[in-house]
From TrEMBL:
Organism: Kribbella yunnanensis
Protein name per UniProt: Cyanophycin synthetase
Record's keyword annotation contains Nuclease: no
Chemical reaction(s) catalysed: [L-4-(L-arginin-2-N-yl)aspartate](n)-L-aspartate + L-arginine + ATP = [L-4-(L-arginin-2-N-yl)aspartate](n+1) + ADP + phosphate + H(+); [L-4-(L-arginin-2-N-yl)aspartate](n) + L-aspartate + ATP = [L-4-(L-arginin-2-N-yl)aspartate](n)-L-aspartate + ADP + phosphate + H(+)
Gene that this sequence comes from: cphA
ATP-grasp domain span: 235-490
Pfam families (alphabetical): ATP-grasp_5, Cyanophycin_syn, Mur_ligase_C, Mur_ligase_M
Gene3D superfamilies associated with the record: ATP-grasp fold, A domain, ATP-grasp fold, B domain, Mur ligase, C-terminal domain, Mur-like, catalytic domain
Stretch list, region Disordered: 907-934
EC number: 6.3.2.29, 6.3.2.30
Cited InterPro entries: ATP-grasp, ATP_grasp_subdomain_1, Cya_phycin_syn, Cyanophycin_syn_N, Mur-like_cat_sf, Mur_ligase_C, Mur_ligase_C_dom_sf, Mur_ligase_cen
Task of the protein: Catalyzes the ATP-dependent polymerization of arginine and aspartate to multi-L-arginyl-poly-L-aspartic acid (cyanophycin; a water-insoluble reserve polymer).
Alphabetical keyword list: ATP-binding, Ligase, Nucleotide-binding
Oligomer and partners: Homodimer.
Group of enzyme by EC: ligase
Length: 934
């Protein structure tokens, strides 16, 4: 805090959120997922915490555990020191958001608050979250709470709001069983993705992925689940194996139930055929009237209307948990009850028991609150009490007959007490049903004695048994049963991750990604690739859209066919959501050049480099960063890499960059460089002191005989990434030699098409740096066309455009550069103007072209034709045979269809001997005329 802070006047509750982002992976602020709030303090910018009377005291009164926060001091109480010294309310909101999540059981501690540069009173608040919805709700509530501390709002009750927040967190949280498995997976570095708002979770990636839903796994057989759900069939199967089970029959009417009960002998149990969680189970039925009363209760919980009547086995209730054929835990389940103290009534004892913070609604906590319903009242009455009676001290009053945790029961761990014969019986029961995870319910006098001798039986086999009675027993030691579940899904040594190669840079991302994918497809890998054109799974385009963001990456990682992933990662996706995945084995950074500046707070090249450097920060110690040594900003990223760096460079031997790379390789490092000779340029792979020739650049189809230097660079980056990923040299060489810029392999990127004698190049070039590289290629290609032309000096015609979210000066520069390389420039616009008015972009580009023309540039004519297809038709119409026409397109599918149509029409005209026009036709005088009329 500074002495110059103006604190005159009265603080107003002006703190408000003006922007919210959710980062679902590594991002520019942190390596882990985070919530990002941009807040405006308004008048509160002039009122730090120590200038608002009573602020700190009221804050700690409501959230006393804030005194545990370290803040920047690195010790407990550090945040309190900052409050007393004076800190701004945006910073306080960050700590409140973290503490609110801790109140809901999410141990989140990481956060930071920074002022937005050049915007006094506006702050970036970034804090960690475990559950996205809870994290967002914590941020919103923290802002409301801080405002209320500044100026109380009679309609805001923090206690009530906190309770609502905690209940929301409990609703969205995983249940104890799912959470236990996820925690175990995280401890083993197994990635996971939540697939819905409930408990469906994917563990692992791609081809290695397994799924769980609570304790049901992708290894759980549907037939086994159906069998376990049919209690009658379960009993018959277990009986056929000689396992102890009660006598039972399934029926559908009350009269049949009474008849079977009379046949079996009282007392009996009446329960639904396919129920769960103990719902509808009626125990200790002593006569026909009890059976008639219990039947509709059981039938109501049966999905198919069938009810089981079986003889009642007397004893304690035990749950044996079998995982992958082995007993892993046993718990004694005690029905919901209260114990008299001679002072309180039964109802009061229930309230005292439910006040235990371990008890919640349903399965949200380790114990469930006891519900007093009509059945509970009747059971209490049968024990000689009413709810208003005070039971004697130490007298147990049962509230339910079944020991299910879901009805308020408690559990006692008995894992190490069970007799080996009982363990063997439970394991055999799970095998008979066929379940990988099974809960075997035993009723017997004592689990420490053989049930065949003491009496007892298996009364039920459960699919997807709950874990909380074992992981959080009320009495006894917890059993870490998530371990055998994860062991079963991912045996020791099994792989859970697929290799991920992430590619970023201002230009060349898509082509490089395609080259890497092509190399590994040639090796037989099932590659999942994302790019600006869509998502490709094993050479099949499954989604056609701009898929260079984090959502697309997650879609690839969820696909069960993919065993290798290549992600094109754009600046916008990183700023919007982060990477969307935890880490990449190989990060490729091609270049950092002025493009998309002035958006989302990125105003300089250095800031843009920080954004693209997120990929390098996401490289683990075992991974690699493939960096362009020729780009100073990319070169600096080596400091962000935890793994090894692989350089690629087109620098000449003897240059400072090459000398640095040589030193890197002498220390055992890796690099891909270009060696020049009279025979041509050779791509060379260096590893330590070894140098391995990879390929002549002029023999790689994508380089157009070595003329397309941008694709030479892209090929070098792809080779470096493939080499780092373990691809053999001959596979890399074969991949690059078979990769070309045909529309099939590289749609919209340097596609060459012959259209009635014209060389047409289709590319995506949309910014000034890309236009500079494309212009170099045009110059080289143009010279070769002159050498081979028999029709005189060919013209160069360029159709150019850019996106509307560039700065005016960048758009102007694009036009200037284009004018240096084309004879005729036709300016068009994309369908999406990204905030610009129609015609505004074209005018800026045209101004850049004319500026260069005035300075003596090559261009002799510039025209504006706004519509893309109309501009392309116009370019073809004014060109002659032998000319070079370069089309910088937006919708390449539509453009290629148009070019094919024109080409077919020309071929058809040639075959028919049509002499209606000169093959070397002159462009029509009317520039808006349809070229099909020429």
């Amino acid at each position: 805090m500074t002495d110059s802070t103006d604190t005159h006047g009265t603080p107003s509750p002006d703190l408000k959120i003006i922007e919210t982002r959710v980062y679902r992976g590594p991002n520019v602020w942190s390596y882990d997922p985070a919530i990002h709030l941009v807040v405006d303090l308004g008048s509160l910018e002039n009122f730090p915490s120590n200038t608002i009377p009573g602020f700190t005291e009221k804050l700690l009164e409501h959230l006393p555990r804030l005194d545990q926060h370290h803040c920047s001091r690195g010790r407990r109480g550090g945040f309190i020191e900052r409050l007393n010294e004076g800190t701004w309310l945006g910073h306080i909101a960050e700590h409140v958001a973290l503490q609110l999540q801790q109140e809901a059981g999410h141990d989140m501690r990481r956060g930071k608050t920074r002022q937005v540069k050049g915007r006094p009173g506006t702050y970036n608040i970034v804090y960690a979250y475990a559950d996205e919805a809870v994290g967002l709700a914590a941020g919103e509530l923290s802002v409301r709470f801080v405002n209320n501390l500044v100026q109380p709002d009679p309609d805001f009750d923090f206690t009530v709001e906190l309770e609502k927040f905690i209940k929301q967190a409990e609703r969205t949280a995983f249940g104890p069983s799912t959470q236990a498995i996820v925690d175990e997976a995280v401890s083993r570095d197994i990635p996971w993705i939540r697939l819905n708002k409930a408990s469906l979770v994917q563990l692992g990636q791609g081809v290695h992925a397994k799924r769980i839903r609570a304790t049901m796994t992708s290894e759980t057989g549907s037939i086994a689940v159906d069998v376990a759900s049919d209690k009658d069939l379960t009993t018959r199967l277990l009986a056929s194996a000689g396992l102890p089970v009660p006598r039972s029959e399934s029926i559908r009417t009350v009269d049949e139930a009474v008849s079977i009960a009379n046949k079996i002998g009282y007392p009996v149990v009446c329960k639904p055929l396919d129920g769960n969680h103990g719902r509808g189970v009626c125990l200790n039925l002593l006569n026909a009237d009890d059976v008639r009363e219990a039947f509709p209760i059981a039938a109501e919980q049966s999905r198919r209307g069938w009810v089981i009547v079986e003889n009642m086995v007397v004893g304690k209730d035990y749950r044996c948990l079998i995982i992958n054929g082995r007993m892993e835990a046993i718990a004694e389940r005690v029905p919901a009850h209260v114990v008299g103290d001679g002072v309180h009534t039964v109802a009061e004892l229930v309230d005292i028991t439910n006040a235990d913070p371990r008890r919640g609604v349903g399965h949200e906590k380790i114990l469930t609150r006891i519900t007093v319903n009509a059945a509970a009242r009747e059971l209490v009455r049968s024990q000689g009490f009413e709810l208003d009676d005070v039971p004697p001290e130490d007298v147990m009053v049962k509230l339910t007959l079944t020991g299910n945790m879901s009805t308020g029961g408690i559990s006692i761990d008995r894992t190490w007490e069970a007799h080996p014969e009982n363990v063997e019986i439970a394991e055999e029961a799970a095998r008979m049903i066929g379940l990988d995870i099974a809960g075997i319910d035993f009723i017997c006098p004592d689990i420490t004695q053989p049930v065949r001798e003491t009496g007892g039986a298996i009364c039920e086999v459960n699919a997807a048994p709950g874990f909380r009675m074992h992981t959080n027993p009320t009495i006894g030691e917890p059993q870490y049963i998530a371990k055998p579940v994860v062991d079963m899904l991912f045996p020791p040594g099994a792989t859970s991750r697929i290799p991920i190669v992430a590619v970023t840079g201002t230009n060349g991302k898509t082509t490089t990604s395609r080259m890497i994918s092509h190399v590994f497809k040639g090796m037989g890998r099932k590659v999942g690739m994302t790019s600006t054109d869509g998502i490709v799974i094993d050479e099949r385009l499954v989604i056609r859209s701009d898929a260079s963001g984090p959502k697309s990456a997650r879609m690839v990682l969820q696909n069960p066919r993919v065993d290798f992933a290549v992600f094109e990662v754009a600046r916008g996706g990183i700023l919007r959501e982060g990477l969307g995945y935890e880490r990449n084995d190989i990060a490729v950074v091609l270049n950092v050049q002025p493009d998309h500046l002035g958006l989302r707070g990125i105003d300089t090249l250095e800031q843009l480099a920080d954004v693209k450097g997120v990929l390098v920060e996401a490289v683990p110690r075992t991974g690699y960063a493939v960096l362009n040594a020729d780009d100073p900003l990319v070169r600096k990223m080596r400091r962000k890499c935890s793994g090894q760096v692989v350089w690629f460079s087109m620098a000449e031997p003897g240059s400072e960059v090459r000398d640095y790379i040589e030193g890197h390789c002498r220390r055992g490092g890796r690099a891909v460089v270009l060696e020049r000779s009279d025979l041509g340029d050779m791509i060379v792979v260096k590893h330590g002191r070894r140098s391995m020739q990879l390929a002549w650049t002029h023999l790689l189809p994508a380089t157009f005989g070595g003329r397309a230097m941008m694709n030479v660079q892209n090929a070098m980056a792809a080779a470096a990434a493939a080499f780092a990923a373990g691809a053999p040299l001959h596979d890399i060489r074969q991949g690059l030699r078979t990769f070309n810029t045909s529309y099939y392999l590289s749609p919209g990127r340097l596609n060459e098409i012959d259209v009635d004698g014209r060389t047409v190049i289709v590319d995506y070039c949309h910014n000034a740096p890309a236009m500079r590289m494309l212009g170099d290629f045009v110059d080289r290609l143009g010279e070769s066309l002159i050498a081979s032309s028999e029709l005189g000096r060919p013209s160069r015609i360029g159709v150019i455009a850019t996106a509307g979210d560039r700065r005016d000066e960048d758009i102007h520069e694009l036009g200037e550069i284009a004018a240096q390389h084309f004879d005729v420039v036709i300016v068009r616009e994309d369908a999406r103007l990204r905030g610009r008015k129609r015609g505004e972009l074209a005018a800026l580009i045209e101004a850049g072209v004319r500026s260069a023309m005035d300075a003596g540039a090559r261009c002799r004519q510039v025209e504006i034709v706004i519509d893309e297809l109309t501009a392309i038709r116009h370019a073809l119409a004014r060109s002659n045979r032998g000319d070079l026409v370069v089309l910088c397109v937006d919708q390449h599918q539509t453009v290629l269809a148009e070019l094919e149509s024109v080409s077919h029409l020309a071929q058809a005209g040639a075959r028919s001997g049509d002499e209606g026009g000169d093959p070397d036709f002159v462009k029509p005088s009317d520039e808006t005329e349809d070229p099909s009329d020429a």
